[in-house]
């Protein structure tokens, strides 16, 4: 039975990878396009609001100094205002933007909405400074030294013992075990206590020979 060709099978992962890369490239492009479109709609809405404000201003001036010949002008401005309100109503399905309730409160009170942005930025800056101060206080350079100093003032004996333990621990960590010159030769000294209280020292030297595969033990006299 002749072996089947694996050419098309090996080409499938490459095509899938290419398609995945194209999708990843298209996703940022789509998001950027949506952002640009959203910004354009926002600018159009802002322009419509400015036109409506101008229309209201002209209407208020006309009504304030109303005369009989101004009747047609008042009706014209009212029709323009109705058209502008209808156009603004059409933006509700095109633009998705969150507006804080506080901004509406500023507008209802006749205040500048920029004051909300100013107060919000000041609040965020204050919170940032507070958090930065907490982080700085908890860092090793300030908090640990202050804690050690205060503990040393109230508990001098305990802190002295603590410092000695820390010093001994650091010394033991820096100490390294002696290396054997010959890894195959091990010399051990064993002390065995006898009944009369004396000690017997026995030097056992174990030599291993890798070539012969044997070992010898020679007790010291």
UniProtKB/TrEMBL annotation:
Keywords: Activator, Nucleus, Transcription, Transcription regulation. GO terms for molecular function: transcription coregulator activity. It is found in: Nucleus. InterPro entries: Mediator_Med10. One of its GO terms (cellular component) is mediator complex. GO terms for biological process: regulation of transcription by RNA polymerase II. Residues 10-37, 201-221 have a biased composition (Low complexity). Residues 1-37, 172-221 are annotated as: Disordered. It comes from the Eukaryota. Pfam families: Med10 (PF09748). Component of the Mediator complex. Belongs to the Mediator complex subunit 10 family. Component of the Mediator complex, a coactivator involved in the regulated transcription of nearly all RNA polymerase II-dependent genes. Mediator functions as a bridge to convey information from gene-specific regulatory proteins to the basal RNA polymerase II transcription machinery. Mediator is recruited to promoters by direct interactions with regulatory proteins and serves as a scaffold for the assembly of a functional preinitiation complex with RNA polymerase II and the general transcription factors. This is Mediator of RNA polymerase II transcription subunit 10. It comes from Entomortierella chlamydospora. The lineage of its organism: Eukaryota, Fungi, Fungi incertae sedis, Mucoromycota, Mortierellomycotina.
